[in-house]
Amino acid sequence: MLTYTIRRLVLSVPTLLFIALIIFLLLQLAPGDPMAQVPLTVPPEVKQKMREALGLGQPIHVQFWKWLVQMFWIEPQVFIDWLTNKSALFGWLPDTNLYTACGPTVEGPCDLRVISWQTRSPVMDIVVQRLPQTLWVVGMAYVVGILIAIPIGIYSAYRQYSVFDQAGTFITMIGFSIPPFFTGPLLIVIFSVQLGWFPFIYDTTHVVDDWDSFVFQLQQMLMPVMVLALQTTAQISRFMRASMLDNLNQDYVRTARAKGLSEAIVVMIHVLRNSMIPVVTVIALGVPAIFGGAIITEVVFSVNGIGQLLITALFANDLPMVLTITFMFAVLIVLFNLIADILYGLLDPRIRYD
Fold first, then answer.
1. What angle do helix axes 272-301 and 180-187 make, rounded to 10 degrees?
2. Other C-beta atoms within 10 Å of 6: how many?
3. Which residues contact 277 (CB under 8 A, 6 or more apart)?
4. First CA to last CA across the chain, in angstroms?
5. Over the stretch 294-314, which tens digit does the pLDDT of each residue have?
6. Per the CATH hierarchy, to which homologous superfamily does domain 126-347 belong?
7. Cα four-point dihedral sign 307, 313, 314, 320
8. Which of 1, 29, 36, 177 is the most buried (most CB within 10 A)?
9. How far from chain centre, in Å, is Cα 1?
10. What's this model's pTM, rounded to 2 decimal places?
11. Residue 172: how many CA atoms within 13 Å on its side-chain side?
């Protein structure tokens, strides 16, 4: 298993480089101009100098190589420096943490980092600031969705064609079919406008320091979490039900029952472990997908997270920001593919990667 993991990690490097190249070329072909938002009163020669300052006058291969060096060489060193709290990168800014010292007035190492065209700040600094909000909403929604979906799928399969199974099938099909851009405004109209129970704008500046602030945090998280968890529950519960039904009719289940094992042990240990193998794939690959769904949800509920940051960067034609965030999504896909394959071997001893 260790050899397989190392081999997959090594193969993921050219895969991610190829993905980064494709994303970069697609963004180069996309319409739009980062200078479009500059006032018309700015002289053309000034706009040209601004283009050159952003690196737009350089050849495409030079721009891509510069981004690779910044992303895979400079940014990791900045991150290590932030973790170890040592002196600044390359000896600049002595006795100062480079990660927090970078700004629009600082010369030197900041020029080497991936800089947003829109804010003129390091892209990773902005991503790190937005990431906790996304993880709070997306992470909580995914955990809630999984915890609800797996028991529903198990019981629906065990009580096939019962009232619970039919009701669960109907509800999950509705949840899987309705997109977040519809369920989000619908919940806002019902629970915020009509009933006034929950705030419809997510306050990212809210600080939890007592019980009342904790309750408010739960209230403002409830609706975006419900929107994202609805689709997660619908998808995973259907896969869980189908996988359980496939294993409940296997010979080993009849053998276990013939040996006198209790129904709870047969279902919850033998059947469940084998049924989790295909479900693990859905859960692992669903993590990047739920981040994609969070893009719409964050915009609907004004969650100041990664999704809203990506939408803002797209409208502003901020190529470094869009390229970095989409590449992060690609890393998540490759990483969780590997995690799913490793979990296969842990759940099923018959699977070997020799």
1. 60
2. 10
3. 243, 344, 347, 348
4. 7
5. 777 777 777 777 877 888 888
6. MetI-like (1.10.3720.10)
7. negative
8. 1
9. 26
10. 0.72
11. 23
